[in-house]
Amino acid sequence: MSEGAAKGFGKKPQPTEERRKFQAVKGTRDLLPPETALWNRVEQTAQEVFASYGFGEIRLPIFEETELFARGVGGETDIVSKEMYTFAQGSPSISLRPEATASVCRAYIENGMQQWPQPVKLYTLGPMFRRERPQKGRYRQFYQIDAEVLGGSDAPGIDAELIEMVMSFFDRLGLEGVQLAINSIGDKKCRPQYVELLRAELRKVNDKLGPDSQRRIETNPLRVLDSKIENEQKLIEGMPHIADQLCEECAENYLGVKKELEQRGVQYRENWRLVRGLDYYSRTTFEVTAKGLGSQNAVCGGGRYDGLMELLGGPPTRATGFAIGEDRLILSLQETGKTPAPQKRDVYIAWMGEKVYATAIRVAKDLRTAGFSVELPPVEQRFGKALGQADKLGARYALILGDNELASGEWTVKTLADGKQQKLTEPQLLGFLRKL
Asked: How far does Cα 184 stand from its chain's mean position?
């Protein structure tokens, strides 16, 4: 047997395996133009509004030690216990970030920001990751815009200004049907008494509640107030309100927040069921809802978390912040007709002849430098095809360059909306476009 035959040469070729088409992983998706223009506008507006309130941008790692989120989000929450993407190959275990606040606090402690002028105002934006059931406006890779005020005092004006800022941001975007709800959940002095009162009242109706609510009566009764189960609503509405159980100091603070919002012209409603279940949250909580999102209509949630920094190994630090669900915000803007039109070109350069190409390249560069959007085809096209392509791209003008235009120094400019043509020198062309 020859060496080639021994190695299998000469065998009948096997059918080529069908190539599989790859798709985005479940719970993720591609963001395409022109939708990305809306995303850019939202993020640029956030940067402008937040900067006007003295906030600086912080950019954070996409993954952190798992223990950071277990402490910062809550080890018993569904987010940490069921939804995080965790990698335990090494030590310590790491997880993709499911939210930003814990990372911002870690950065504040690690980088000695407590030595900076207080309070420190930070914002961040980017992707977060949770393995939950994908649905409209909810993805496994989703995006948040997050702002935090760290250090300083717990003066009502800090909470009120933070809320004013996020409402100004939504107003600048033209978000429709925006409603702000606020509440106070007290502090470690008065909230424990309320929790025990609530637990006692919930136990009286235990047999009428679902399994999740029954379990939460013992583990975290405040979470029962978040229930969306229809047949539980009347029972929950009959529960004691936390506002009636606030200590004098917390009641005074809450009154101060409401007065500050009124002074700033920020409209709100009170929602006694707006709570946070973890112990380090305190006093002010708030939520913003918008049109076009159905029952899951919240686009922003926030509140004060004065106990978190200590829990993460830092010094006692006052803190408050919010997170905006950017996916839901974009969806609401789209549902109410705020989607931008596809990007159009200002000028399409229809060039003909090899000698003209170098001039076309230079003109395209000059026009782009002057701020115009220009399409320069890489190969020569017939005149009719060039104008057809310009029309498909939504170009406002076609700049026609051929040997005659190059020789005379007068270039043909065609307005595609009405078909009018005119001859312009290069300096006249720039002046003509700038006027428009």
From this structure: 26
Q: Are residues 409 and 297 in the same domain?
A: no
pLDDT in tens, 184-195: 999 989 989 999
Residues 127 and 76 in one domain: yes
Whole-angstrom CA distances from 425 to 366, 410, 419, 422, 434 are: 14, 5, 19, 10, 14
Out of 309, 335, 361, pick the residue that ends a domain. 335
Q: Enter the tokens of residue 249.
A: 């100091």
Strand order of the β-sheet with 347-351 is 374-375, 347-351, 397-401, 411-415, 421-424
What is the arithmetic mean of pLDDT over 24-47?
92
Q: Is residue 368 part of a domain?
A: yes
Look up tokens 């009018």; give the residue: 420
Asked if 401 and 381 count as a contact pair (C-beta separation under 8 A), the reply is no
- For the whole model, what pTM was predicted? 0.84
Is residue 297 located within the same domain as residue 152?
Answer: yes
Same domain, 298 and 400: no
Query: What domain range is 407 assigned to?
Result: 347-435
Name which of 57, 155, 144, 73 is nearest 107 in CA terms: 57
Average pLDDT over residues 2-7: 48
